[in-house]
Amino acid sequence: MKPTNKLLGTVAMMASPFLFLQMLSGDESSQHNTPLGGLFDLIYMIGWMCSIAGLQRLQATGSRKTGNVLFQVQLAFLVLANCWNVWTIFDPTNQSTLFFVLDMFWPLSNLCLLVIGIVTAVSGKLKGWRRFAVLFTGLWLPVAFSSMMIFGRSNTSLFIAGIYSTLAWFVMGWMIFTSDAEERRVSLAI
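The structure assignment produced for this chain is given below.
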C-alpha cells in the first residue's frame, strides 16, 4: 500500500518545525551536536523525505527522466544525511572522517532541493502558487547563510533561519497535502 499525498503532506507539515527546534535545543556557546538535536534533525528530515516522495508522485519537475533522477539523488542525499542524524543521537561528539563526510550531505541536500525548486518552477507542471512552493523551500540555505552573513551567529540569524525553515517546509507539506483535491478540481474543470 502506497502512502497517500495527504499522509505524506501531513508528516511533512508535522515535521516542519523540528529543524528550528534543533536550533533552539543546542548550546549556542559550545555549538556542539546533541542527541536531542540529532533526534529533532531525524524527524525533520523524515518529513523532508515525505515531501520529496509527494513531489515525485506529482511529477513536479515534469515527466522527463532528468526530474526523476533529481528526486533519486535528493532521496539518496537525505538517507546519507539521516545516517549522520542517527549517528549524532548515539555519538554526538564523534570526530571521525566518515562522520564529517556524512554531515556534508545536509548542505548537499539543500542544494539539490534548490535545483529541484528551480526545475519545478521552470517546468510549470504545478500550477499557481504550487509552482513556486518548492523553490521557496529550496531558498532556505541561501536565506540562512545570508542572515548569518548580515547578523553573524546570533539569535536574530537563528530566528530568521528557523522561522523561514518552519514556514517553507510547512507550505511544501501543505501543497502536497492538498494536491489530490487540487488535481480533482482541475480535472473536473477540463
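Interim note for the steering committee: The chain has a mean pLDDT of 91. The radius of gyration is 17 Å.
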